[in-house]
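Q: Got a minute? One more chain.
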Amino acid sequence: MAQFEEVGPSKPVVESIRVDKVSPRARVFRNLRALTVLVVALIGLIPIFVMVVTAFKTRSDVVASPPKVLFTPTLEGFVYLLTERALLPQARLEEAQANAENLGLFERIALESGQEITATSDYVNRLKNSLIVAGVSTFASVVLGLFAAYAFSRFDMAGKDDLLFFILSTRMLPAVVVTIPLFLMYRQLGLHDTYLGMILLYTVFNLSFSVWLLKGFIDEIPREYEEAALVDGYTRLQAFFKIVLPQAVTGIAATTVFCLIFAWNEYAFALMLTSDQARTAPPSIATMLGRGGIEWSAIAAGSLGFLIPVVIITFALRNYLLRGVTFGAIRQ
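A: Always. Here it is, folded:
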């Protein structure tokens, strides 16, 4: 008669994990690569450091030779940036100095150079124009580019490659080549110095970049996911929003950052196609002239304020941006 042995619960099997030791030579090369990256990063940050330091220097410290490394920080550059001032006559200057305790911080700083604040500058309005134009154009270019990229990625159409090349060709011409024709056209259409004109222009120029970049991300999303959704009764639009869109978030974030940086930093079109109402920050910062010379501290302060918003947005999307640039979306 056959006898059966009771089989107990299986014992856990602990697999040994072999840790590959890094050779000393490989460790040296890895450290050298890290050191090289660090040095290049520090060299690239030198202009940013000089800009930040200059923003907190006085006019005499800015033009000092040799350059001053140790100095007393001041907000003089921000006062020159955010206000308009006038020289005080000697009598009023002495009276203002006697009542300096009742003045605000900016008023006291202006008084040190013998001036009084007469009005606020237009820098804040220029920065607001940059936010409106860059934000709306980036949103429009990413949304339109996403739908166009999906169509190019998923559907077969006659002359698709030619259409893609035509879209890309809009970025081949330098801005200075098309500025004069655009200026004449905008004058005829009434779009000169308007938000609508700048938003349309930046959207068109960013659209080609958006389409090509997003198409690469959507190509990497497996078609089988959408086909399964269509079999389950989803429409094509529902499958796009519920299947493709969540998986393309990294690509959308990367595209948003790049389009925003282009629209935010653009100078030539903003200089030629705007004059007052819709002028953005880049051309206004470059034309800051003080009494008797260029206000370098004010220019540095304006550049610093112009840099902060895009740094905040890029930092907030850094995780999506890193994954989007290096890996793209889901790979099949």
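A: The chain has two domains: 75-121, 124-326.
Q: Perfect, thanks.
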